């Protein structure tokens, strides 16, 4: 019973792609939400002359201009925090890559923002794949990514956005895919 599973696994590669549900996004959503709440409470404290903050005393601030500015920054911070929490909830950018020799197809799936294009799907035949391309760009904004080069189409990104993979991980993943599909690995 175990043999068919290993045979199937050798004929299908299924790679989950991490979207916006990363530790860094949770971290920034928490930090921005707490900061926005603090600024808004400071602004309200200066208006109401009642201390609403659990630390510090904002009742001594003049409402105009300091309280208004604090309130504005608080509302802006809470809106940004709300956006970050929604992006995490919707898992924007999450999905998977599937290379299937049994069906002869490649399927790339990602979640987008809500609406008619929430489900982003791309499919092609394995024989239409020309190569797997590795892009390595160092510097201020480093980029390390894998792309699928398909006949008569644009290149399709295979790796997550935002956090570059390590060089060894990128090389191993690219070589494994190129071997599996039977196409050259470009860009190294």
Per DSSP, what share of the residues sits in E-state strands of 2 or more residues?
25-35%
Number of strands: 8
Q: Kindly state the mean pLDDT as a whole number?
A: 88
Query: Any idea how many domains?
Result: 2
Radius of gyration over all CA atoms, rounded: 24 Å
Main beta-sheet annotation: 4 strands, antiparallel
Instruction: Identify the strand order in the major beta sheet.
Output: 1-2-3-4
Specify the number of helices.
4
Helix percent reads: 40-55%
What overall geometry do the principal axes of the alpha carbons give?
Answer: elongated
Order of SSEs: HEHHEEEEEEHE
Topology:
Layout: H1 2-11, E1 12-17, H2 23-48, H3 63-90, E2 95-100, E3 105-111, E4 119-125, E5 129-137, E6 143-150, E7 156-157, H4 167-181, E8 185-186
Parallel strand pairs: 5-8
Antiparallel strand pairs: 1-2, 2-3, 3-4, 5-6, 6-7
Provide a descriptive summary of the structure in words.
This protein has 188 residues and is α+β, with helices and mostly antiparallel strands. The chain has 2 domains: 25-90, no CATH class; 93-186, PH-domain like. The chain contains 4 helices and 8 strands; from the N terminus they run αβααββββββαβ. The chain has a 4-stranded antiparallel sheet with strand order 1-2-3-4. It has a 4-stranded mixed sheet with strand order 7-6-5-8. Helix 2 (23-48) runs antiparallel to helix 3 (63-90). The longest helix has 28 residues, at 63-90. The protein is elongated and about 70 Å long.
């Amino acid at each position: 019973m175990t043999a068919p599973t290993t045979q199937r696994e050798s004929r299908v590669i299924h790679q989950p792609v991490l979207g916006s549900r990363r530790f860094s996004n949770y971290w920034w959503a928490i930090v921005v939400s707490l900061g926005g709440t603090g600024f808004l409470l400071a602004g309200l404290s200066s208006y109401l002359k009642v201390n609403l903050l659990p630390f510090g005393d904002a009742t001594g601030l003049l409402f105009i201009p300091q309280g208004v500015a604090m309130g504005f920054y608080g509302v802006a911070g809470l809106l940004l925090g709300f956006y970050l929490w929604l992006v995490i909830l919707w898992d924007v950018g999450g999905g998977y890559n599937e290379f299937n020799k049994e069906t002869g197809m490649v399927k790339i799936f990602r979640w987008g923002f809500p609406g008619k294009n929430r489900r982003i799907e791309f499919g092609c035949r394995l024989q239409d794949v020309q190569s797997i391309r590795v892009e390595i760009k160092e510097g201020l904004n480093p980029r390390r990514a894998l792309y699928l080069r398909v006949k008569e189409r644009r290149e399709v990104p295979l790796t997550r956005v935002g956090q570059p993979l390590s060089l060894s991980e990128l090389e191993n993943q690219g070589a494994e895919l190129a071997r599996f599909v039977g196409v050259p690995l470009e860009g190294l």
